[in-house]
Structure formats: C-alpha cells, structure tokens
Amino acid sequence: MGPYRANDDGTITYVGNKLFKPIDNIIGSTFDIKEAESRVINLNNDKMWSKIARINHTINKSTNEYFNKINATFTLLPLTTRMISSPGALYGKEAINYTSDTCPITLNWFELKQKVFLSESSQIYLEIALMQDNIDQVYAIYNSFRKETADETHLSEFHHIEYEGKVNQNTNETIALGLIQKIIKDLLKNNLDDITYFLDDKDIQELEQLSNIIQNIPKITFKEALDVLYAATSDKKYLKFTMKHFGLWEEIKLTELFGNSMILIKQYPLLEVPFYHATVNGSNPAVADNADLIWLGYREILGSGHRVRNIRELEEKSKIFNLPLDDYAPYLQTRKLTSYVETSGFGLGWERFLQGLLKMPFIWSASAFPRVDNTIKP
Known about the structure:
single chain; alpha+beta; BirA Bifunctional Protein, domain 2
C-alpha cells in the first residue's frame, strides 16, 4: 500500500495504481490549468469520479456514525475568524519557515479595519465549544484554507475531519485510529467495487490487514524517528533535533524502514509546532504532547495533540508567538473558567487520506474540485 517510494538520491517515485502509471519523480509537480478547464468534461466521461464520489459518501457517513457512537456532538462553526490555530508565520517574532505554521488567507469584512482570516482549522472553536454545559466531545467536518502553494500533497483549500474531547492524548490517539479503522472497514464492506477500480488484490489484502491491526501500529518519538533516519542514511543532518530536515521524503522513508507500516510519530520540538500544544512535563529539550499519523508509503494524514493546560502556559505561549491578545481573548477566557477541563483533539485531512488510500499520484487526482493557488477553475 501507499503511493510513493523514497529513493536514495532524495527523489520520490510514484508507484502507480490500476489507473495511473508510475512516475519516476513526483517532486515539483504542479496542477495543470488545462486539467482544471477540462474537469467538467472529465467528470462526465471518466467513471473514476463517480467511484470517488461514492467513496467520499461512505467516509462522511462512517465518520458521523463513529462520532455518534462515542457520543461526540457535531458542531456548527464559522469559516471566518481572527483566531487562527497556526499563527506563528503571521505574528511570530522570528517565524520559522519550516514549522507547521501556515499563513491564512485574508479578506475584508464589511467596514472592519482589521483583516479577517479564512479558517485553516476548526480546532480552536471546537475547544471553545467544549465550554458548553454537558458537552464533553465535539467534532466538525469543514473546509480549511491555507495560503500555500499547492503541490503533490497540498491543496490551498481542503477538508478537515476534526475532533476535540475532554480526554488525554493516549485516548485521543485511540479515538483517531478508531475512526480510520471504521472508515476502512466500511469501505471494504460497502464500496469494494469502487476501491478495486483503483487497487489490486494485494492492496485490498493489505487494507484488510491494516483495518485489523491499526491500533497496534508502531509509535515512536520524533527523536527516535531522527535516530532511525540517521542509522539508515548516515546523514548528519538527522543528528539535529529539528523539523528543518523532516519532510515528505523522510515520512515515506520511515514507513519503509518500519516494514511498510503506518507510524504514529510523537513529541515534536515544542516551538516548531502550533502554539496550542501542551508541553510534555520534564522534557529536555522541550517537546509537545502531540502525534502525527503517517500513512504507509505516504505522509502525515492526521495531526493530534494535548492542548495547553492552563492560563499560565497559554500566556507564556502568547508571548513566544506574539499573539494579539485582543483577538485571542475568547481562547484565553477558556483557561480562566473554573470548570475548564483539559482536552485533546485531532484533525484528519480528508483529501490526503483519500490520496493515500487509493494510491493516487497527486492530491488533485483525488479531488473533483481541487482548489489550488494558480487557478479557481472549475
């Protein structure tokens, strides 16, 4: 399973599926505007799209069934905000360009002098939603927007399945893996004809195996991931405890080094991930109580974490990330409430999950209406 292979020369090969031929190196690929202009005709002529539509329908249905079963409440949220969940690139005094911080898309809002941002995650508002009486778990399925150039695994607008609950990080990880397990099992049961349009028998067998063992996939720290990469490559850049040299190639390579398995990578450098993550107590260097799920032969499809625990930690983070306190006042208020309970949550990138699942060459190959930086068509 998995669409990509990491080559020793630093390139990445697309391995192909039943519809798309292998590509020697996918790095640097861009969405062709001509493909966007012909998408309507393509939707009409290519059976692939109706199969993806049915697969997406099952993903949506399975997600709602799963969260309903664990008593999580669906929550209506805004797409416009002044509180973005990854503000470092915008407000940071010394923003690091290789962190997971992303710049939001801005717009004018009536007569307001300040710019308004399109949401790049529902996470902050899901945390606030947990302040409601007798609401212990919430979730949302919404569009997210990021002002970043689209590439083989990035869209400028995509969809998030996001969860937040009054649970610790270990329980949060179990819930996240359970969601993916539920989706895969439902697809194998209800959409076998659709997924076999893309995947061969061996792929289907591996999906079935994954659905049975997903709760027992390897879980390693980010430091351990760097150590494994160094042992495999002897490249000294992996001796530095930083995300600067950790990208798509490294994520793919790790899944290969762990026997073509999904991996949960935990405890990233604290100041190189979004501000809202809690610190692992006693960690030195400081690491976040977070985890990314890496799809086999692909990359991170799900990010999760334990949230900043109290007003003191949050105020410290606000100074480091230079947050505008007026804008983030609602978020800070949550930690001042005497009824506040610590929470953890995750976000699953829908299109990334679909790309990895179906072994598609590019993320826009898995989206009927892809939104990228160089066109707004179709």
